[in-house]
Design brief:
2 copies of one chain form a homodimer. The first copy, chain A, is built from 9 helices and 10 strands. The first copy, chain A, has 212 residues and is an alpha/beta fold. Chain A folds into 2 domains: 70 residues, Winged helix-like DNA-binding domain superfamily/Winged helix DNA-binding domain (Arc Repressor Mutant, subunit A, Orthogonal Bundle); 113 residues, NAD(P)-binding Rossmann-like Domain (Rossmann fold). Chain A binds a DNA duplex (24 and 24 nucleotides) through helix 3 and strand 2.
DNA sequence: TAGATTGTTAATCGATTAACAATC
DNA sequence: TAGATTGTTAATCGATTAACAATC
């Protein structure tokens, strides 16, 4: 069905999903691409093009059924499935992610947390045990781990990432400020906080320049 | 000098900056666009085009001086300046950000942390006091706060964001899963973790589909 | 049926890549 | 000078927007 959709389109789906979820919550039953375009500040044309990448979900003269569209986009994003997730690195960021109950609700089930620090072993976050990194291999091979969130320092991230691939993890959610260079086709989604802050810094700097 | 550079270009600058920093660390003095293109997995043409948006930093027949280029990109990104930053919301994510010493090093100085929870008042993270949200207005007006990192739940984020704008903050680094809809031209940089995870989920789902 | 709005094709715009003259 | 590599123009590619026929 959906082969080779551009990443520009995929990048917009979660935002559509969020708006449609809000509309559903608010009890809105139908919406036209034009109404949605006003709310979201994008063109109606883009909305229709985006949805039509996956086969039309609307109806001429009517628009889109909010709940149906919400569910369909959820399916496209795989939110109707359950994925087992582990977190590597129980530092501040790892703990923050471990505490996000929303991820669980959306089908991302946290099944384990790993850290190199032996002092943390035996502790747990939301009943998920923190384990020694030594147990990583056996744990992954025993459990069906789809996603590993990598919240460890830059230095060790590439080596650990390689292990994760070898042990059979399917995707890495990478928070380390480094490119992991994994085998062709392996799924990596990067969250580079420092880069985000630099873009903000650029905007601040540029706006100061302009006002002179 | 640099007016209206596309956000595609700006989005790539921090990555260039990271690679050039690593090269500098490694003692590399010069690099050609072609060598850099191999390392970074982008075209040499794009590298040269990107840099030439800001005036050429290279030299024909030689390439680019690593340290000079690193410093120039740093200046473009505003990393030669100092910005005062506050964090609104001392939950897990707020604490994680507060503990990032790297941001301080790059000129983002954390000057205050705010939370609605009165129990946290009086505590501090890395010697930065956690204050009641009641003190937000006076604090911002007394200190020169450039950036506010917003790490609070979705529900209250838009209202707090509005206040931040009114009180004179220059930019918001928004971690709440909501669009803030602030006045035209006000700087917002979003980090939507849930959306990032959904894109990863899409990739996982699509790869399963393909392998069937 | 008439009106509304989609799905889809065509036109435009912008970003990326290729090519090469300029020049170190 | 000859070789290398940039800076920059031109060609290509892809994404966005506009337009409209199909259809509910």
């Amino acid at each position: 069905m959906a082969e080779n959709i551009s990443s520009a389109v995929i990048g917009r789906l979660p935002r559509y999903y969020r708006y449609l979820g809000d509309l559903k919550e608010a009890g809105v039953v139908r919406i036209s691409s034009q109404e949605l375009s006003k709310k979201m500040n994008v063109t109606a044309s883009q909305i229709r093009q985006d949805f039509n990448n996956f086969g039309g979900f609307g109806q001429q003269g009517y628009g889109y059924n909010v709940e149906l569209l919400y569910n369909e986009i959820g399916k496209i994003l795989g939110l109707d499935k359950n994925f087992n997730m582990i977190i590597i690195g129980a530092g501040n960021l790892g703990q923050a992610i471990a505490n996000y109950k929303d991820f669980d609700r959306r089908g991302f089930k946290l099944v384990g947390i790993f850290d190199v620090n032996p002092k943390l072993e035996g502790l747990s976050i939301r009943d998920i045990p923190i384990m020694s990194i030594d147990k990583l291999e056996s744990f992954i091979k025993e459990h069906n781990v789809h996603i590993a969130a990598l919240t460890i320092p830059k230095l060790h991230a590439p080596a650990i990432a390689k292990q994760l691939v070898d042990y059979g993890v399917k995707a890495i959610w990478n928070f380390a400020p480094v490119d992991l260079n994994l085998p062709e086709g392996f799924i990596v989604e990067n969250v580079h906080l420092a880069e985000s802050l630099m873009q903000l810094s650029y905007a601040l700097t540029a706006s100061e320049r302009d006002s002179n």
